[in-house]
Structure formats: C-alpha cells, structure tokens
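Example 9 (inverse folding). The structure is encoded as follows.
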C-alpha cells in the first residue's frame, strides 16, 4: 500500500536525476547489476519485474542496447500515473518488450502472470518502509522468483545502517550475494543476490510492504538529520 501523500511526489523526486550526483551514481550502479544479471542468463526468455518502478529508467536505458532485449518480457509496476505515462512513452520510443502497469507494487496481485521472474528489481523502495517490512519483502521474494533468479535492490546506508541486516536476511531466505556496491562519498548502495534455494509457490493476496507517511520514512529522517542547520 502506498501512503496517501506518496503518489504525486515522485515526479519531483525524479527531477533529482538531473543534478544529484549520488542518485545518478546509484542509477549507474543498478544498471550495471541488471546488465550483469542479463549477461549471466542462458539464451531464451527472460522475465523481469520491477517494484515501484518510477519512470523505469534503470531498466529501460540499459535494456535498449542489450543484445538480449528481444528475449525479455518485463512488467514495471508504479503507482504514479504521470511516471507510468513517461515510462510507457519511453518503451514505445525504444520498441522494448516491456509492460508498464499502473498499480500498487506492494501487493503480490500486481505480479500475477509475470512471475516467476528471472530478475526482480526492488529499487527505491526500502528507504520508505519499516525495517520489518524490508525483512518481510525479502522473506517472500522466493515466491516471485524463478530458479536461480537475481534480485537487485537499493537502500541508503544512513545511520542506523540497515544494509548488513538486509544482506543477512537474503542469506536466510535462500539467496547468495553476487555483488554489493556503494557510491563513494554518499550513502547510496545497491546489492544483487541470486536465489540458490528452491523457489516457493506464488501467493496472491500477500502484502509485502506499506509506504510510510513522508515524515516517518527512514530516508526522510536521515536527509533532515544530515541537512545543515538553518
């Protein structure tokens, strides 16, 4: 479920890609991990899902030039209608095999017919929910994954740094770490984990997380704590 003040604010947040060096560096980090995940796949169909996908630039920019683009079928789920339209326009411009769905990415119904997925993107999500919801999402990711799937995720390393716990939770859920990268001079980070245990059956009707109201989000609290005094 997306908090009542969440839909609409993300258009402004995406404008930061024009000037925020840390955010741009994180984007490149994620794109590199997606490219590695595709490069490691055998020939044949590749299913991708992306939670809270925004305008989809992390996947679309990379996929446009990837030699396996024709093998991909992706579903991007996003709750902001303007960002959905932007993503759909870019998909049409690039001629990509990508579906952009307007919907609530926090519930598993959003992925019906698109899972099990070979690549799962959980980027820009976990700084906006409780720690318990991060753990809950990781716990249930095997229900969305195909055998050997790669999950790519992001989370700021602002204090208290949750990323060591997230990496442990992935291990407990049956994944092995492929990569963990950070942005020099910033708190941005991204990880990639491969499912090494058996996938579990898809469960419709499961809630993975709930976006907090803006003032209560860990990322918001961290930004304000780091801001210089007025």
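The amino acid assigned to each position is listed next.
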């Amino acid at each position: 479920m997306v908090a009542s003040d969440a839909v609409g604010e993300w258009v402004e947040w995406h404008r930061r890609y024009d000037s925020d060096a840390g955010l741009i560096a994180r984007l490149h980090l994620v794109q590199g991990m997606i490219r590695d995940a595709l490069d490691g796949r055998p020939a044949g169909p590749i299913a991708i899902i992306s939670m809270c996908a925004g305008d989809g630039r992390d996947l679309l920019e990379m996929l446009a030039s990837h030699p396996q683009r024709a093998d991909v079928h992706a579903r991007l789920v996003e709750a902001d209608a303007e960002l959905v339209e932007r993503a759909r326009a870019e998909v049409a411009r690039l001629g990509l095999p990508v579906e952009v769905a307007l919907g609530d990415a926090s519930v598993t119904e959003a992925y019906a017919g698109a899972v099990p997925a070979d690549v799962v993107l959980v980027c820009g999500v976990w700084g906006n929910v409780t720690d318990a919801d991060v753990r809950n999402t990781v716990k249930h990711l095997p229900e969305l994954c195909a055998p050997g799937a790669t999950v790519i995720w992001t989370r700021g390393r602002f204090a208290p740094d949750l990323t060591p716990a997230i990496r442990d939770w992935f291990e407990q859920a049956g994944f092995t770490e492929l990569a963990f990268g950070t942005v020099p001079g910033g708190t941005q980070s991204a990880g990639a984990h491969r499912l090494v245990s058996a996938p579990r059956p898809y469960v419709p009707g499961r809630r993975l997380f709930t976006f907090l109201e803006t003032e209560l989000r860990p990322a918001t609290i961290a930004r304000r704590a780091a801001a210089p005094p007025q």
